[in-house]
Amino acid sequence: MMRARLVVFPVKGRNWCFSRSMDSLISGDTSKLSSTPTTIRDLWKSLSSSSQPVTANAELLVDFVSHKMNTAWMGLEKAPQGSFKNKIYGVGLWLLSRVKPSELFLKSISKEVTGVEVTYPTSLNARLVRRRLRHIAMSGSIIHKKYLYGSAALLPVSSVFMVLPLPNIPFFWLLYRTYSHWRAWQGSEKLLQLVSDGSDGRCSNKKENERHNSSNDEATGLRLVLEPSKQLEELVCRGNADDGLSRCVMIDICKTFELNPQEVLRYQEL
């Protein structure tokens, strides 16, 4: 059973931050990378010898493409300062900075996640927190599905630039956006499943869960655990009510709850 820890708090007005703790992200990504093929030969072996359904093979193909893109990106990152590859890396950083933080959050909810533990300030109502999670999941499912088809449709058009001697940046950017929207769409569907009412899953408060150990939680099939945090409430109260949370406060929240500051700070720009 893989449980993801989510941290939710208001930044300014109706602008809320949704982020996943990095500790559960690292453990989940490590196990996933170990089963992803790294060469075309290994990929072909996995696809040809597998009796898995088409959707599972599609996931394997997407993971393979993702691994190749990450490897190429790391190569650009290590390029010498001032080189052509380094300039491409700078353009890539600028493009990535325009990606909405909600998309990064939804991408972090992988198919392996079977439950979420949501930490939020004590001043917030648990039903409101759950409703906001449902809203971001439902809207993300609609938006990223639409943009997935749009990005995929533009891939053949951008491939005509392959004849040029320069790297085909439009093609690789659209390829990344197609992959990113696919992951965000899948994450939206998964999150919606976890936070919605169902016969095999229940919403529980942390105080109620203290009467059960982790093995009992797995046995009862809890998919959503809501955990009000006094520590998070104190950090949020340090922010200005009119101007929203300051950069320093948000960084302190990231340190306390092991969040990625580069992703969390983007919520200030919304």
Which descriptors would you attach to this protein?
alpha/beta, 12 helices, 270 residues
Protein model, in words:
The protein is an alpha/beta fold and 270 residues long. It has one domain (3-269). Helices cover 60% and strands 12% of the residues. The chain has 12 helices and 5 strands. It has helices at residues 22-34, 40-49, 54-77, 84-96, 101-107, 126-158, 169-195, 206-209, 214-220, 230-237, 247-257, 261-264, and strands at residues 3-12, 15-20, 115-121, 203-205, 224-229. Strands 2-1-3-5-4 form a 5-stranded mixed sheet. Helix 5 (101-107) packs across helix 7 and helix 6 runs antiparallel to helix 7 (169-195). The chain is globular, with a radius of gyration of 20 Å. It starts with a strand and ends in a 6-residue tail after the last helix.
User: Using DSSP, what is the number of strands?
Assistant: 5
Helix/strand order: EEHHHHHEHHEHHEHHH
Rg over alpha carbons:
20 Å
The quaternary organization reads as single chain
List unreliable stretches of 5+ residues: 198-203, 206-220
Shape descriptor:
globular
Biggest sheet overview:
5 strands, mixed
* Count of domains: 1
- Helix count equals 12
Computed structural class: alpha/beta
Query: Percentage of helical residues?
Result: 55-70%
Keywords: Membrane, Transmembrane, Transmembrane helix
Transmembrane segments: 147-176
Biased composition (Basic and acidic residues): 199-215
InterPro entries: Mit_KHE1
Fold topology:
Elements: E1 3-12, E2 15-20, H1 22-34, H2 40-49, H3 54-77, H4 84-96, H5 101-107, E3 115-121, H6 126-158, H7 169-195, E4 203-205, H8 206-209, H9 214-220, E5 224-229, H10 230-237, H11 247-257, H12 261-264
Helix pairs in contact: 5-7, 6-7
